[in-house]
Amino acid sequence: MIDSFSRYVSRDLVTRLLARSEPLGLEGERRTCTVLFADIRGFTSIAEKIAPEDLHQMLNDYLHVMVESIVEQGGFIDKFVGDKVMALFSGPRTTAESAYSAVLAARTIHLRIRAQNAHRVSTGAAPLEVGIGVNTGEMVVGNVGDQWRMDFTAIGDAVNIADRLQSLAKGQETLVGALTADLIRDRVALSNRGEHRLKGREAEVKVFAVDETT
Predict the structure, then answer these.
(1) Angle between helices 95-122 and 52-72 (to 10 degrees)
(2) Could you tell me the pTM of the whole model?
(3) How many Å apart are CA 171 and CA 51, to the nearest integer?
(4) What pLDDT, on a 0 to 100 scale, did the predictor assign at position 143?
(5) Three-class DSSP labels, 29-95
(6) Do residues 180 and 172 make contact, with C-beta atoms less than 8 angstroms apart?
(7) pLDDT of 13
(8) Separation of alpha carbons 210 and 166, rounded Å
(9) Which domains does the chain have, with CATH numbers?
(10) How wide is the angle at C-alpha 37 spanned by C-alphas 159 and 194, nearest 5°?
(11) Are 133 and 168 in contact (CB under 8 A)?
(12) Which of 32, 135, 166, 203 could form a disulfide with 177 if both were Cys (CB 3.0 to 4.6 A apart)?
């Protein structure tokens, strides 16, 4: 049962649900977590030019890279929305370690997508470019929905910022928020991109880009 359901949600979550002695509710708890969003640049244009079956295979190859890279660093796959991936980094580790793990996952994704692109180009397919946003902050982690259909996820301004950073990122680029930058700057080279007014937010956000060469 654990092996089967772990294909849809994380193994840790399945184990926790099976250990419960009472029905699952719509509870949530406030935590400080790091969230990663990743998305293919120009996905709609790619989908327009290839058969649905080829698109399906391309997505599976891409998502295999995403899942492997995130899980290797202790991340939890929250959801897939088409080509967009949302992942959480939390658990028993410190906030700084979770932030660093998320950035390592992002770097691994970029490296593996480049390797995958070499094969794609050799077969005449267009290369993929992935933009990634990473942000750390307080959020509520728990179940949303109703008693018949629930989704385990994270909600809060920090989550929205991560998604907006992903939208702002260029292909093969990782952008991080201010708290994430503070937590990893001793271990990762960053460039300050200044303050940006992200879509839907009034307050500006400090944005930093991860140097992929270090």
Answers:
(1) 150
(2) 0.87
(3) 23
(4) 75
(5) EEEEEEEEEEEECCHHHHHHHCCHHHHHHHHHHHHHHHHHHHHHCCCEEEEEECCEEEEEECCCCCH
(6) no
(7) 56
(8) 13
(9) 27-210 (3.30.70.1230)
(10) 75
(11) yes
(12) 135
